[in-house]
Design goal:
The chain has one helix spanning 52-61, and strands spanning 4-10, 15-19, 23-28, 39-40, 46-50, 69-75, 78-85, 88-97, 107-116, 126-133, 137-144. It is mainly beta. The strands form 2 sheets. It has a 6-stranded antiparallel beta sheet. It has a 5-stranded antiparallel beta sheet with strand order 4-3-2-1-11, with no helix packed on it. The longest helix is centred in the middle third of the chain and has 10 residues, at 52-61.
């Protein structure tokens, strides 16, 4: 069986490779505003794809204070962000639809720190402690990887 290797580039030049269909590894492009923060980043535990407006909201939330903790909540077909401040959780980014495969125009939302939660009417089933919203995908390529065998 041949499994395609999917790669994509975002509008600011970061290069992503889809790993195991659900995760991504990212090579952050060197840019003056990043200083020395460039190169390969930690492979995500899960990557979903959201519209640019939602990605901007996820990015802006990273600068909020005072916040004790954040959690990205993933349930059903939506993803949202909650912050713990002053002893309670509050929604920071409203539920937004996500997609499980990349496509031009969507933004990758890389997630780490996976936990399983009990489902509640207010929040989703899974939460992640860390996230990185990428810029919009502008180019995608797929190439065949080496063949894999189901035989032992």
């Amino acid at each position: 069986m041949i499994s395609p290797v999917v790669r994509f580039t975002t509008e600011r030049g970061s290069e992503y490779t889809v790993v195991d269909l659900t995760r991504t590894s990212r090579k952050k492009k060197a840019r003056a505003e990043h200083g020395t923060d460039a190169g390969m980043k930690t492979t995500s535990e899960l990557t979903v794809y959201i519209d640019p407006k939602a990605a901007k909201e996820f990015g802006m939330a990273q600068g909020l204070s005072p916040v004790d903790a954040f959690t990205v909540l993933l349930g059903g077909d939506t993803v949202q962000l909650a912050a713990h401040t002053y002893g309670r959780w509050r929604r920071v980014v409203a539920p937004t639809s996500f997609y499980v495969t990349p496509r031009v125009g969507l933004c990758p939302l890389e997630l780490w720190g996976f936990q399983r939660l009990e489902e509640t009417p207010e929040f989703g089933v899974y939460h992640f402690d860390n996230w990185h919203p990428g810029n919009a995908i502008v180019q995608m390529t797929a190439s065949p990887s080496r063949a894999t065998s189901s035989r032992g």
